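Quick one: structure tokens for this chain, please?
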Amino acid sequence: MTIKLPRIGPDGRRRGAWILLLVVTAIILATVTSMAMTPCTSRPGDGGVKVALSDGRALRVLYIGDSLSYGLYASSADKGFRQRMNAEFTKVHSVDAKAVGAVAYTASTIDLGTIGGNWDLAVVEQGTNDTGRSSLDTFRNDYAKLLDAVLAHSPLVQLVCLGVWTEPRFAQYYDRIIESECLSRGGTFRPLSDLFDNPENRGPAGLARFGGTSDNFHPNDLGHERISARLRGAIILTDGRQPWYRALFTRLRGCSI
């Protein structure tokens, strides 16, 4: 027995095309509405920054720091928090990382011309060497210039700003500036002074360590691990693959995708 299906005429095909178009439009509008109600960058209270991973391209990470970012007096070069973070990133994605700054650097001595651009994530650990040396007004100006230099060439970068590594009674004044300047640019802030205040995160002095003989000021391996853990809690890696219309709308909003 042969079953003959009714032919669909031109009017039926046009109706089907319109229905399909309406369904697709409804899906796109629902997606756009949902994204419009979602902030580009999450704040410290809701988990930190979100960094999207993309197929075919390494995660580009910029570190701006001083002796802490260098890993000075860790037991070995790979035990510093920066190296620990890169090791964590490479577990899930390829990484293209760059470190700017060195031992004893302040916010004003960073060579802004070496920062580069098109970074996905920037971890800024500056201010420890400014504490007690630079006035608060000078530090605010220098720190703001530093963040603006990063954003000038990486407008979609996700910022994580670390507080200064010193006693809380001294750190509070500089940390307020770091937090304010960072959050005003869509970044997130994480303090370090409470970690410094725990003596098990520093020293002991007089040991042969990476970069020289250790002191009681710089973080030891445990201190670097705890700094790394704090950073890991502030950075959320997400899957950057998404439909073209979501990516387009996100870029139009000036967000990271």
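The helical segments are 10-36, 67-70, 81-90, 136-153, 168-183, 193-196, 221-232, 244-253.
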